[in-house]
Design a protein that fits this description.
Its EC number is 2.3.1.286. The chain has two domains: 151 residues, TPP-binding domain (Rossmann fold); 69 residues, SIR2/SIRT2 'Small Domain' (2-Layer Sandwich), CATH 3.30.1600. β2, α6 and β3 form a beta-alpha-beta unit. It contains nine helices and nine strands. 37% of the residues are buried.
Amino acid sequence: MNMDTFYQVKQILQDNDNIVFFGGAGVSTASGIPDFRSATGLYNRQTGNNYSPEYMLSHTFFMKHPEEFYRYLRNNLYYPDAKPNNAHKALVKLEKMGKLKAIVTQNIDGLHQVAGSGNVIEFHGNSTKFYCMECGKEYPSEYAYETLGVPKCNECGGIVRFDVVLYEEPIDQKVYSRAIEAIGKADVLIVGGTSLVVYPAAGLLQYYKKDKLILINQEATMTDNQGDYILIGDISKILWDLVQELCQGGVG
């Protein structure tokens, strides 16, 4: 990591009180939740059949093969013991300082809220929340993940699904609008733990019009040329170190 850039970013965080964080799967890897596209990520794992992971997480597959869909979910997207890491905790500190105004996350694990963040915009939904597709009754994640076969509603018998946007499904327009508004109003935008290759989420970057775009990733990405400040390394360490520097500087 370039330490000159690190201290430039620290100064930016110290001088600004209108910061938005836009994060992806890399934010939660230190919590033991795999990302999607790295060499060890979810999309490079064997699925045990001829279907791709993307197809198995699609609306079509869910409707055609709900039992296989749930088997895949339980084996690959259920991490009941995952805890917030220092990236999540650093963002909570930044919010308590009055600097961080919103988090826009592509993650579905709910760890930002568990850590204590307030204004979290979940772009792709939340895998810990479930509801009946027929009557809308809500269920805890344990009910769906620990039930054998396809979980059914105990009120109407409808299929219970998680509150996550699957492939082929549209992003909720209210969520989309909130994300656009937050990013568009930000003076500083920190983008971390995301390769920014999945649309429409990657397209949110176009709504940031200022000149303090900070990119933090484990390795270089194809969008680094859009960033004003690039930090390469473990985001859980970088964010924590940045916020600790602010606290020691008398800000928090």
